[in-house]
Amino acid sequence: MSRIDATFAALAASGRKALIPFVTAGDPSPGGTVALMHALVAAGADIVELGVPFSDPMADGPVIQRAAERALAHGVRLADVLGWVREFRAADPRTPVVLMGYANPIERFGSEAFVDAAAAAGVDGVLVVDYPPEESAEFARTLHARDIDPIFLLAPTSTEARMREVDALASGYVYYVSLTGVTGAGHLDAAAVAQRLRALRAHVRLPLGVGFGIRDGASAAALAAAADAVIIGSRIIELMEGLDDAPARAAAAAFVADIRRAIDAPPAAPNRSAS
Strand order of the sheet with strand 125-128? Predict the structure, then answer.
């Protein structure tokens, strides 16, 4: 059983939902990435999504775009990200790490070389935004051969055919994009997301994580009621923006701890007061 599978199994057994924060590797500084990852876990993260900086992150809004620009300005490359995962894994053998990014850095590194290096570093899952499932069968097989979960996106506009394609290739979990548009944009309709997740479960057997647009405990808790995981990135990076490593780490950890409490809290009792 993979670390991701084991994490979801343990959470399901205890009636809890996964909390998956996203941060960009190398932001606020390259030297602070591993400490930030550990701080997120200590605050209640179950899985860490680590963004690989790229100059043209088409699915990301301005907050994550700026984080990628800052990391690239520091000279951060894919090899550095893998090194930080290796360093994190040496101290934390349990928490899954998922790399999220774009095809260009992987193609430049070499697809098979990347998978080998990721496995050696202790990466548990890979989500490549611009690798659609219909073009990813070989890449998914290569990941599976090295015990790495290929993770794919589904969106409100995804067809049933796309859902079945993702179900056939993916493992670990599926990332449901709750809004059309880029990260950090729009306003969530939790009831509509819950309805869509019910439809997805007819075609997708894996745990479903929901991301894009979650900014506070209330929205996280509302989505956690229907999803298996909540994924938060833009708001964390926004809170860290402009801060040095230590205060940025403290701000991110405090926010993640708040979200953890919100999604772990029992549902509010119905109001039975007389009208």
Answer: 149-150, 125-128, 97-101, 48-51, 18-24, 229-232, 208-211, 174-177, 153-154
Q: Is 134 a catalytic residue?
A: no
- Parts of the chain with a pLDDT under 50: 181-186, 274-275
Identity at 9, one-letter amino acid code: A
Q: Name the one residue in this structure whose structure tokens are 């403290």.
A: 250
- Catalytic annotation on 49? yes
DSSP assignment string, 23-77: EETTSS-GGGHHHHHHHHHHHT-SSEEEEPP-S--TT--HHHHHHHHHHHHTT--
Distance between CA atoms of residues 9 and 275, nearest Å: 43
* Domain annotation for the chain: domains and CATH numbers: 3-263 (3.20.20.70)
Task: Choose the catalytic residue: 49, 80, 228, 238.
Answer: 49
Cβ proximity of 217 and 259 under 8 Å: yes
> How many other CB atoms sit within 10 Å of the CB of residue 269?
6
Question: What would the pLDDT profile of 120-176 be if each residue is shown by its tens digit?
Answer: 999 999 999 999 999 999 999 999 999 999 999 999 999 999 999 999 999 999 999
pTM: 0.93
Q: Which among 27, 60, 124, 149 is annotated as catalytic? A: 60
Helix (H, G, I), strand (E, B) or coil at 17: coil
